[in-house]
Amino acid sequence: MKNQTTYRYQVATQNVDFTLRASIDSLGNYILNTAGIDAQGKGFGVDTLSPKNLTWVLSKLVIEIDSRPEQFSEFDLTTWVNKNTRLVSTRNFTLSDTQGNVFIRSLSQWCMLDLTRRAPVDLNTIEDFYAPYISEVESPCELPLRLRAIAPEVIMEHKVAYSDIDFNCHMNTMRYIGLMLDMVDIEQLKSNRPMRIDVHFIAECLYGQIIKVGMQNFDNQTLFEITRDDGVVACRGAFSWR
Fold this sequence. Notes:
Elements: E1 5-10, H1 24-41, H2 46-49, E2 54-65, E3 74-84, E4 89-97, E5 102-114, E6 119-120, H3 127-130, E7 154-159, H4 173-183, H5 186-190, E8 195-201, E9 210-217, E10 221-228, E11 233-241
Antiparallel strand pairs: 1-3, 2-5, 2-8, 3-4, 4-5, 5-6, 7-9, 8-11, 9-10, 10-11
Helix pairs in contact: 1-4
């Protein structure tokens, strides 16, 4: 369909977990890497933005997982941008098997950041830049949940290290989710239950900072809050089990 682009991948050995299916964090990496590849191919990726001292920053991410593909299987990842406001661009994704059966749906919201001012850019001022690529196709899942402060039952401490940081020199998106996954009971992950992931990125975590990952469990939902050593909440997340 108009302004939707599809990429084909194969689940490599290094991207599976102990279930011999694509790990949850590797699926997130497929999604976010494709966002970068697609933006670059259409002329509004970080390669174009960097000389202007601009970059894309992920604000919110939703991933709905019905099932995870097995090792060596092929799948198609389709992506499109459909809704831009003054400060937020919405990019969508579906993952489907080679017969066209969708097993993952995702929605991401991005801000463009001026690296000099460390402030968001009004997307209306650069509308001509990306307008030709806006699609009329609706998002495949519901908007991000509202995530509020939690009363953590368990807290894990982590020092942001070299392997955590990305090209923006702050903690990589999937490391936040990886730290949350590290706190979940292994039996919950072993069951391969359908789940929805909501993550809100609020502030940067930088190299050398000590962060605390708090977790609070409910019947079918696990909530997370990541706080920096200066007391600032950097990220909130929710895993909703179905």
